[in-house]
Specification:
This protein folds into 2 domains: 1-261, no CATH class; 280-527, no CATH class. The chain contains 24 helices and no strands. The chain has helices spanning 7-17, 21-43, 47-54, 57-63, 71-78, 82-96, 99-103, 106-111, 119-144, 150-177, 181-207, 220-225, 235-256, 280-309, 321-328, 332-360, 362-368, 372-376, 382-416, 419-431, 434-450, 460-474, 479-482, 500-523.
């Protein structure tokens, strides 16, 4: 087992480096999940109210199909997006402790000691697998402490843990495919996003007796959700997830033996032997164009999906005077659909902020790989170099959001026969997310400018905003906590009123913080 020599020491190193982050995300996810039990038990005390709340295409798209009417089943359904967060955190952590270590050269330094070839990968996976196991156990105890059945509490713990295991293995495979940590993240996040879209499209089609219900069976997220905690408790699906995780882990190990340290299996695309790109912006275009195209296509697909099911949200009101009265103040069916679309736009905006952070951190990749120095050795200033990348971290999300707004407007407009009326409304709602997206991009710029070695902390911005959204949706959250997220201050569009004050404030914050980051970049050593 020489290839695993030093794994224990590397595990201790990872635990030391993540001694704050790992416990924090475990505690937060468990606290959010457990808090939903009392809150939603009070809001929907009867089985009939739970079924009526969950039985519409819009909510099924977001959270999946409700398996039954008990409180445990309802809470599990409402937490349907949390396992996606678990998968995202898991794959990012594995890539951070594998591909990032190679890209920065630290893996090569460790390789000069008594470290086996597979020790780094084994240490990263062991740590993340262990963290997800602890998450599942603590969650099971927490849910049972709320007087929920033991079997169901164990089952929901398996849902979380198995999803984290699977996508940790996805991150391990992605780390073997490319020499760039950013590209590896893009591949792994793309798999996660694809799995979510397949689950959403399949569940929505099944609910409406459509022909695409089989898509859910292709999604590992759907496999985990179909364990159905507090209902059937299908333990064997957890075994299926475990088998898939083992298969992916084995694949990652095999791929790791077929590449050099620091390299990826996918070959780098070399440019022409002769020629010139002409400007820093042309070089940035070459580096960002693939990422921009992938995100834009993904956002367009999300827009088509959400726009296509929006009309079904109004079905909640049929034959139920109580729900009709509840939403009468919101404008009836139209108001309810606008509320759904506004929630979808917030979700799309949060995803766009992840793209903005990823595009911004491309500067750190260029710096740490040594490719920035030859560019700056020419007449190109640091400001010009940074500006060429910021064009894509600021305008790239705008293009992606525009694609989402256009696709959603076309899909929803076609469903109700009002494309001309809905298209501009939903384009405006999508672009209204930009001030908040730019604030998180500016935070990433500031961290990169002043603390380049801590650039990965930039991912905390979108993560914290998503967690605040999850908490606010389920419990009575203090105002100051909600106000931390810039998305809290955006107008609720479509359907809501627009106030220029918050938008201008967010733009001012983005400009000030981003400019401060550029000043920090101008004054520090490069590379650092």
């Amino acid at each position: 087992m020489k290839s695993l020599a030093g794994t224990g020491g590397l595990i201790r190193l990872i635990l030391r480096r993540d001694r704050i982050v790992l416990p924090l995300w475990i505690v937060l996810l468990v606290a959010i999940s457990v808090s939903y039990v009392k809150e939603y038990g009070d809001l929907f005390p009867t089985p009939d109210s739970r079924i009526k709340y969950a039985s519409n295409a819009g909510f099924i798209t977001l959270y999946g199909e409700l398996s039954g009417s008990s409180l445990g089943e309802f809470v599990t359904w409402r937490l349907g997006f949390v396992p996606v967060m678990v998968g995202l955190i898991s794959l990012l952590t594995v890539i951070r402790h594998t591909r990032v270590e190679e890209e920065t050269g630290r893996r090569e330094l460790l390789g000069a000691t008594v470290i086996g070839r597979h020790a780094q990968l084994a240490a990263a996976l062991t740590t993340v697998f262990g963290a997800n196991l602890i998450l599942g156990l603590v969650l099971a105890l927490g849910m049972h402490s709320q007087n929920l059945p033991v079997a169901g509490s164990v089952a929901i713990g398996i849902v979380y843990a198995s999803t984290g295991w699977f996508f940790a293995a996805v991150g391990a495979v992605a780390a073997q495919l490319t020499a760039s940590a950013g590209t590896a993240r893009g591949i792994a996040i793309g798999v996660l996003g694809g799995a979510y879209v397949l689950r959403a499209a399949g569940d929505t089609s099944a609910h409406t007796d459509g022909p695409l219900a089989w898509l859910s069976y292709l999604s590992p997220i759907a496999w985990a959700q179909r364990i159905h905690p507090y209902a059937e408790n299908r333990w064997w699906l957890g075994v299926l997830m475990l088998a898939a995780t083992i298969a992916l882990t084995t694949t990652a190990v095999v791929l790791a033996t077929r590449r050099d340290i620091g390299a990826g299996l996918l070959p780098d695309k070399l440019g022409p032997a002769d020629g010139t790109l002409g400007s820093p912006l042309a070089l940035a275009w070459r580096l960002h164009r693939g990422l921009l195209a992938a995100w834009t296509v993904g956002f367009a697909l999300l827009g088509l999906l959400f726009g296509g099911v929006a009309k079904g949200v109004g079905d909640m009101m049929k034959d139920d005077p109580t729900i009709q009265e509840m939403f009468q103040r919101m404008g009836g069916s139209a108001g309810l659909i606008d509320s759904f679309l506004a929630g979808v736009m917030t979700l799309v905006g949060l995803i766009a902020s992840a793209y903005a952070v990823q595009a911004t951190l491309r500067m750190r990749v260029e710096e740490s790989s040594g490719r920035a120095e030859p560019v700056l050795a020419t007449a190109t200033s640091r400001w010009q170099w940074a500006a060429s990348h910021l064009v894509f971290s600021l305008l790239g999300p705008a293009v992606a959001l525009l694609a989402a707004g256009v696709a959603e407007g076309l899909a929803y407009g076609a469903a109700i026969g009002d494309v001309g009326g809905q298209l501009p409304r939903l384009i405006g709602a999508a672009l209204a997310q930009l001030p908040a997206v730019w604030v998180l991009a500016a935070v990433a710029i500031a961290i990169f400018g002043f603390f380049p070695q801590a650039s990965m902390i930039s991912w905390a911005g979108p993560t914290v905003c998503i967690l605040i959204g999850l908490v606010s949706a389920g419990v009575a959250t203090a105002g100051w906590i909600r106000n931390i997220s810039p998305f809290t201050h955006l107008p609720s569009l479509p359907g809501g009123s627009v106030s220029a004050g918050p938008l201008i404030t967010l733009l001012a914050i983005a400009i000030i913080v981003g400019f401060a980051g550029l000043v920090g970049l101008r004054r520090r050593d490069l590379p650092a």
